[in-house]
Write a structure and sequence with these properties.
By secondary structure, the protein is mainly alpha-helical. 68% of the residues lie in helices and 0% in strands. The chain is elongated and about 60 Å long. The termini are far apart.
Amino acid sequence: MSMENYLEINYEKNMVMLNQAMEYCYEDLSHQDLIKELLSDNDLKKQLCIIKIQQLNSQSEADILVSNLTGKSGPIRETISFKILELIKQEAYCKYFQKEEILDTFVKAVTDINPSVSRNTVEIIKYVENAQYLYASLIAEIKKTLNEMQDIQQVRSYDTNKKNFNLYWNIEAIISIGSKIQADEDFFLILKQTACSNDYTIREKTAKAAHVLSLQDNRFKVVLNLLSNDSNVYVQKYL
């Protein structure tokens, strides 16, 4: 296929999708219709319905919403993460996002391959009441990642980058709920280990976490001391 034919086919496909999107925009859908669409496989229509949702009437509706945060296409996961953040901030709907099953989904979404989903989820978990449950789950994920990193060669490989990505967002998630948790020896030992990372972004997150937690537990100042000679400017700003 020539580039010209490819561009023409792609243009026609995009125009068809645009026309479909316009038709969906003009549909007069009830709240029940919007929720029902979240169970469908029509990603284009589903995205528009997610954006239109303004309320939640039950726990089951929240469950359906959260079920789209993992295991779906990138655009759906991203749109859902924005919508959950919008709703969980509101006192009337925050109560619907407190089930342990939902918190388990949030933990998975923290390390989504799409950074927008990760970023939104880190904000979402600030509104979770059982922060200690989240903390324990995040610690388990970090331990798993660190164990797996010992089994791969420490080179700039795809696997190493993926593990560092997981570490980065899981530590950031703990920082996000730092004021609501009782950090323990586990996290202290983890930060002592990540302070020696070859990746400056991991050392930066380590410094940030140690700084936040040292305000309530002096033990974390030890981690800051480990990083005191780090030449990276992003690490230094937390020391």
